[in-house]
Amino acid sequence: MTAILASLTACAVNPGDPINTVQAEIAAINPTPLQRIENDEQQQQIQQRVQGLLLHPLTLDTAVEIAVLNNKSLQAELFALGVSASQLQQASQLPNPAIMLTRNVSDGNYSTELEFGFNILSLLTLPKVRQLETNRFEQARLLSAQRIAGIIADTRHAYWNAVAAQEVLRYLEQVYTTTEAGAELAKRMLQAGNFSKLDYLREQGLLTEATLNLVKARQLAYNSKATLQQQLGLWQESERLILPDRLPEIPAELTEWRSVIQGGLDQRLDIRLAKLKLELVAQSAGLTKATRFINAFELEVGGNLQDSSERSYKAVLELPLFDWGTYRVKKAEYQYKQAFNEAFATGVSARSELTTSYHNYASSHELAQHYKNAMLPIQQQIAEENQLRYNGMFIGVFELIADARNQINAVTGYVNATRDYWLTKSQLDMVMIGVPVTKQESTEQQPVSTAADAGH
Fold it and tell me: Which of the ends of the chain has fewer CB neighbours closer than 10 A, N or C?
């Protein structure tokens, strides 16, 4: 018995440092080391770091850093990792023995018995249980990595939306100012008898349109900034959030498709989760078959406190008269087949997500490049030609104002196209590591269109 216990008894499984492991798995989207805040001193250091970062305009990296340090949902995931590690260590330890003390009285004589027992089945299956619990912990760790990566993904999307919405708002304010000046000029010319009422109403219609678009843009800018503040976990520091004036330029080159498909399928967390689940179910099915006839098997060793030479042994085995374990084995087989098909479906879905995300990324890059290399230069040339025509008195001030509006609208389109590129790039980064795809709300300004779009 001592030899059996010695062979089965070992220290609890050491899960290592799961936080560092998760950090390595999501390093492609998170350059900031994950840190679990466990005391007031650490919290004060984090607050000082966050306040220092908020003194300057946010970049994508600083926004992610603040979220990693300050987002309480992310901190909750880090503590959940600690819970999973503790559960693994507890489940992998030797089961506690049972002690029963009995005192008998017979004809004035007293006797005391001490019974000491182990669940033999638990002892015999302990190595297998440790392996199962280790796989369960790995599964929980990968799920935490997915959720943490999802929080970072939402932060990245919120950042791009907030910067783009603020930049679009600035251009729409210029459109409103230009249109307001044209409407005021039309009003004065109408009063002076130099302008028709129809042309005046057209200018007023354009001003109404510009006003509606400006109100919508202000609301979108406010909402997107509030979403970003939420992702950053800001509270009192929220009013100090400073955004850059414009989005960064898009790169000239695209990431190669081959590196995306190969790297994505190799490192996706959901594929690794599906494989782990399949292994876990297979191991569990093997354990079920091995113990199908044994539901409870206990061995007890008893001793008499008054007579040290007296020993008693008791073995308890539950007989499988009604439940022979057939249904448990069948259930395990079905669970394995279910996990196998789910793993295969995950692989198919991963390939499809990578393909779709890459083509969205490539298309948004092409669209933004078209705005930059074709539409904006043409609008600039048109503006220069119209300025020459205005100087030569071939066109009036209203045509010049209309041209300025068109040029600003083209720039606004380029801003939205640039934002879409960065959003699809972030989405591709998430898909490559296996974060579930979520539909992101667009902050693109949808302009109000009126009959006033017609010229004079």
Answer: N
